[in-house]
């Protein structure tokens, strides 16, 4: 972990200059009417010293701990190893934050924290139990959470954030070491990452739709990506002959498929699918309209990169991408407009990783977890809320 002064030198040397090393031409889109974090971070004084919760934040932002692993919240004991997360609006003006539990031996699952319109916690409850290594996942526009199992025969579970309906396994999304999933509602397709050193990028297209036009997750075609020009440029999609991996792992079924070194977080925004690969510290951008792949960020192109250990990702209304670090400097870093700027940093959490970043539905609060807290033990995870001029 860098000290305060060394991190400040990194910001001065790299964080405030033009990125200038994107491979390809895809840039994060911007929306003028939406608040820009980059503009705030470039005009501010950088990250302040740690607050009472050990979080370094820009001026005007505050942190709150909303849950600790093992803490009794209503009738639920908050789970160990909190990982991927998302938020969902409720009818009373409040919201729900969903968090995965990345434990194995059928001790995994997912749970929810419910907030009222003032941000008070009103309930906590499980939405998935007895699964394995629920790492990341993804939200759907039809108000469900897709929880992904990161094991060799891992599956995707569709969960009800409100806790009213039982979770359902969605084997049509493939059986492999799942990491995360993003929904492209414009084309009614889903994109999925695979956490393997020789993992692949997958796309799911439904054959049928419900009355609201939402794709069926039980009846569709799973494809694997081939980046035609050695990992850049045009992309072809190949149907998988055995998506349930009964005889052969999915990543080995199509010889032409492209390998991505440890697929992690994935996010969809305005026709672009962004995803990370931890093995080579890259952030990728796939243009669904042009079917074109490019590298948005590559840590190897920096002498002293601000962002390493790329992992979970999310985005804000301005189209800026927030990347959480697994290790690295334990930061959440903003990528946009040719900039790479830390938004926050956890101090004293050197043996942990930042997981589950997600904005509240109105964009005013950011949630995330330190999976193993300060001790490095899964039993000591901490879930945070950040408020401020987002």
Can you describe what's shown?
With 390 residues, the chain is mainly beta. 5% of the residues lie in helices and 44% in strands. It has two helices and 28 strands. The strands form six sheets. Strands 13-14-15-16-17-21-20-19-18 form a nine-stranded antiparallel sheet, with no helix packed on it. The chain has a five-stranded antiparallel sheet with strand order 1-25-24-23-22, with helices on both faces. A hairpin with an 8-residue loop joins strand 11 and strand 12. The radius of gyration is 20 Å and the shape is globular. The N terminus is likely disordered.
In which range does the helix fraction lie?
under 10%
List the strand order in the largest sheet. 13-14-15-16-17-21-20-19-18
**Unreliable sequence segments:** 1-33
Our Rg estimate from Cα atoms comes to 20 Å
Compute the average pLDDT: 91
Judging from the principal axes of the Cα atoms, what is the shape?
A: globular
Q: How much of the residues is beta strand, in percent?
A: 35-45%
- One letter per element, helices H and strands E, the order comes to HHEEEEEEEEEEEEEEEEEEEEEEEEEEEE
Oligomer: single chain
Largest sheet: 9 strands, antiparallel
Overall structural class, as computed from helix and strand content, comes to mainly beta
Distance between the termini: 26 Å
Find the count of extended strands (DSSP E, 2+ residues). 28
**Tally the helices: what do you get?**
2
């Amino acid at each position: 972990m860098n000290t305060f002064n060394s991190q400040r030198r990194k910001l001065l040397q790299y964080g405030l200059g033009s990125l200038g090393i994107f491979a390809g031409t895809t840039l994060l889109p911007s929306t003028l009417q939406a608040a820009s974090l980059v503009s705030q971070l470039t005009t501010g004084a950088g990250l302040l010293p740690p607050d009472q919760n050990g979080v370094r934040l820009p001026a005007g932002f505050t942190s709150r701990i909303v849950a600790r692993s093992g803490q009794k919240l209503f009738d639920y004991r908050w789970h160990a190893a909190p990982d991927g997360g998302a938020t969902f609006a409720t009818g009373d003006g409040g919201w729900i934050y969903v968090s995965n539990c990345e434990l194995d031996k059928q001790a995994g699952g997912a749970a929810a924290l419910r907030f009222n319109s003032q941000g008070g916690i009103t309930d906590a409850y499980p939405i998935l139990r007895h699964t394995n290594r629920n790492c990341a996942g993804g939200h759907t526009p039809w108000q469900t959470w897709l929880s992904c199992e990161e094991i060799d025969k891992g599956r995707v579970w569709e969960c009800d954030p409100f806790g009213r309906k039982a979770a359902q396994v969605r084997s049509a999304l493939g059986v492999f070491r799942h990491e995360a999933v993003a929904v492209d509602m414009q084309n009614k397709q889903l994109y999925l990452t695979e956490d393997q050193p020789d993992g692949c990028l997958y796309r799911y297209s439904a054959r049928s739709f419900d009355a609201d036009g939402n794709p069926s997750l039980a009846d569709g075609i799973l494809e694997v990506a081939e980046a035609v020009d050695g990992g850049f440029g045009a992309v072809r999609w190949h149907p998988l002959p055995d998506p349930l991996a009964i005889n052969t792992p999915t990543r080995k079924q199509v010889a032409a498929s492209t390998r991505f070194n440890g697929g992690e977080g994935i996010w969809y925004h305005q026709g672009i699918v962004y995803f990370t690969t931890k093995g080579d510290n890259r952030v990728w951008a796939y243009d669904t309209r042009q079917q074109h792949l490019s590298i948005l960020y590559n840590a190897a192109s920096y002498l002293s990169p601000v962002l390493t250990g790329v992992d979970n990702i999310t985005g804000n209304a301005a189209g800026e991408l927030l990347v959480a670090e697994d290790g690295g400097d334990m930061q959440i870093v903003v990528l946009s407009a040719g900039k790479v700027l830390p938004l926050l940093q956890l101090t004293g959490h050197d043996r942990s990783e930042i997981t589950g970043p997600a904005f509240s539905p109105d964009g005013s609060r950011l949630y995330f977890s330190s999976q193993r807290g300060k001790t490095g033990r899964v039993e000591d995870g901490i879930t945070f809320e950040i408020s401020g001029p987002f």
